[in-house]
Amino acid sequence: MKAKTTSQIYKQQLFMKTFLKTTALLLTVILLSSCAERKRDLDMPNLELTTDYLIPHPLEVTATNSSFPLDQYTAITTDEGLEDIGLFLSEKITAATNLKLEVNPSDMKLIETVISIQLSTNFENDNPEAYKLSIGKNEITLHAASAAGAFRGIQTIRQLIPEQSNDALEVYSIWTIPTGEIFDAPQFAYRSAMLDVARHFFSVEDVKKYIDVLSYYKINNFHLHLSDDQGWRIEIKSWPLLTEIGGQTAVGGGEGGFYTQDEYTDIVNYAARRYINIVPEIDMPGHTNAASLAYPILDGAGKELKPYTGIDVGFSTFDTRKDTVYAFIDDVVRELAALTPGQYIHIGGDESLVTKKDDFIYFIDRATKIVEKHGKKMIGWDEVVHADMNENATVQYWGKKENAQIGAKKGMKVILSPGEKAYLDMKYDEQSEYGLIWAGYIPVDVAYNWSPETYADIPQENILGIEAPLWSETISNIDELSYLAFPRVIGYAELGWSIQESRDWESYKTRLANQAPYLRSEGIKYYPSKLIDWRE
Ligand code: TNX
Predict the structure, then answer these.
(1) Which of 62, 269, 333, 404 has the most beta carbons within 10 angstroms of its beta carbon?
(2) Percent of the chain with pLDDT over 70
């Protein structure tokens, strides 16, 4: 055998060295991770499942005092048809923790804990949005009555994920979730927020941002106030001047804007992924200056038509006795109905102060029939109850309790938006930067401390739900919107979802304070009300 050259010996030594180093490293990794695993089993904390972080307050909560580790070894599995809800949850968990959880992975070898999202029909409660969350040490099971219920349930999961991972436990991060059971269902079917995009226009991006945060609090409808004296905001292909002329103005002389039908569809789809239904409103026969400016033939007020950039109400009206007006409404509702998968179209009907009473009633009757002809249900502001209404129509109570009561007597469903309690555009207090005061100041406690169940003295079965309108005379961008909407809209979400027995200001105060990290992480500049001891 030939003697080895120096260079050969050197190479051999180098190889051995590298080999040993790699093996040592590998061994350390194996050792550490097996230690880690053992450690994880032994050291998982006993956590108490409380409602401290949950809004809306769930129906039933039972703690079992251990914890579920959410970490890189967790996967999400779903029943067929719920994959997108799994993906949505995974995306939101990534945003909150940086973990990238696989959804329905083909290989479960490395998976140790599972979030399993399933459809289930055997609930004691037949509410379509009901869900049951069973959190064990290795598995979170979400049983839901429908996809919408599953979507509501994953919001509860998101709210239970702690802000901080428990790094002390592990060589990798674990977010510990307390074990237990939650059974939950909403008290009202309709839980909504409205945005006025007519007084000031809001971009598709701003609207999506608002919708996304609302979905975290289990809101399920979003009402877009698409037309008013100051602007027309939705493209109607058969009447193009509505947006070409009517879309170009806004309060204070701002530049205005409008949604193309594609953009509107984009909003509808974005909301649909969050199981939020869009309710479009064309406000008529008053609040119609922008439409009449575009097509003067519609006008019934008889004054010179000018772009309107002020904030007064009640000066405009359609000509309610002209057939062209109804041909126009037929076209608008037909196009809007085709873009709107939900069952409702809102026809406004408020503050038609220059429309004669008979003309108003005649108009609402005909407009309602047009909505029904296009396969939709009519919603109108509370003045519409004076027309020929029946149980297919819904009244939105904003001003007069008697109107809500008349509507209920006619069999109508009622949406509660009483101005002095539920108006997001009212100032919080004297210091408020934005907002109006015609319905009084609405601080965070006043916004929360009332009962939609009894407020209008109408039978429970007539109450469809609650909506918080945000009129935009004094706001024009997402930060100003956030200032007025947050935190109050979170309270309205709870009033719509949670039963009276589980609502309590002291408990709500703590739970609201605990929303601060989430709101900050979403870039929401909420009004930091002094009534709340906001969490750092
Ligand atoms: C009343 S509420 C209105 C709106 C205003 C709002 C301002 C309702 C149906 N009509 O036109 O924007 O007050 O708070």
Answers:
(1) 404
(2) 92
